[in-house]
Amino acid sequence: MPLLEVKDLAVRYDKAVILNGVSLHVDAGEFVGIVGPNGAGKSTVLRAVSGLIRFQEQMQRGTHGQVVLEGEIRFAGERIDALPAHEIRKRGFALCPSRQRPFRELSVLDNLMAGAHLSTDAAQTRRRLERCFALFPRLAERKDQVSGTLSGGEQQMLATARALMYDAKLFAIDEPSLGLAPLIREEVFATISRIHAEGIPVLVVEQEVGQVFRLAHRNYVLSQGRVWGEGAGDKLLADESLRACYLGTL
After folding, report:
1. How far apart are CA 234 and CA 20, in angstroms?
2. What is the residue extent of each domain of the chain?
3. pLDDT per residue over 44-84, tens digit each?
4. Which of 25, 154, 163, 205 is packed most tightly, with the most Cβ within 10 A?
5. What pTM did the predictor assign?
6. Which CATH superfamily is domain 4-247 in?
7. Are 4 and 49 in contact (CB under 8 A)?
8. What is the distance between the alpha carbons of residues 129 and 16, in angstroms, rounded to a whole number?
């Protein structure tokens, strides 16, 4: 049984079709990438799985906008597409959204503790805090620093660590390299690889396909709201039509 299974997922904003029949899965222990051009619908997949699309639908009900989500999403065998976002998080789907930024006025430590607000186990929270500091030593050095004064790369590290401060059966991260310098990108992806090495399955959405293909077991290529290819990076790169249309030049 897949850890995460998405079947025929469709998302529409008013009359605009963002996703149209997307199916994918993540098995226990896997590192899976979702790649494709800008505007392909990659981030929408994560928003749908995490419950944020349904939250947006509820917020906009009765206003000028309408959000429609169709399809089936299962996590650890349980259907979750009708659950609110906080219940999906409780079940272990940990999402670090794109452009996620910490609470600027809070310290690094306070931001991390905010990520553990669902926890009722103080000892477990301490262990997760120690793990985050081991993964991101720079955050340990700056734990009392106001988060708004961190560099862009450090803020991405903090957002990633905050997502790990509560139970993570699957860690999903959206565009982790966005806006980062090349050396910082390498550092962030190296940390994501270490998270996976600790036994946490990873689902990453990225436009930087070279980085993802080096790490992921399998990848899905999205374009125009549809899946156009699936497989290991070398298999996808060997498909000249797929590479020319959707993957660009590597």
Report:
1. 26
2. 4-247
3. 999 999 999 876 555 555 555 678 899 999 999 999 999 99
4. 205
5. 0.91
6. P-loop containing nucleotide triphosphate hydrolases (3.40.50.300)
7. yes
8. 42
b/e code 87-124 from CB counts within 10 Å (16+ = b): ebbeebbbbbbbebebeeeebbbebbbebbeeeeeeee
Question: Per this entry, what is the length of the chain?
Answer: 250
The set of residues, in sequence order, having a beta carbon less than 8 Å from that of 140 and lying 6+ positions away, is 133
The low-confidence residues of the chain, meaning pLDDT below 50, are 249-250
pLDDT of the residue at 61: 54
Query: Which pLDDT does position 171 carry in this prediction?
Result: 97
State the sign of the Cα–Cα–Cα–Cα dihedral 109, 128, 73, 45.
positive
| Sign, CA torsion 143/145/146/152 | negative
Sheet holding 78-79, edge to edge: 16-26, 4-13, 67-75, 78-79
Find out whether 5 and 74 touch, Cβ atoms under 8 Å.
yes
The residues, any chain, with a CB within 8 Å of residue 172's CB and separated by 6 or more, are 46, 49, 50, 93, 94, 95, 96, 202, 203, 204, 205
Q: Which residues contact 198 (CB under 8 A, 6 or more apart)?
A: 131
CA end-to-end span of the chain, whole Å?
A: 34
Q: Which of these, 57, 71, 15, 79, lies nearest to 227 by C-alpha position?
A: 71
Question: Residues near 15 by Cβ (< 8 Å), separated by ≥ 6?
Answer: none
Instruction: Locate 57 and state its tokens.
Output: 């639908």
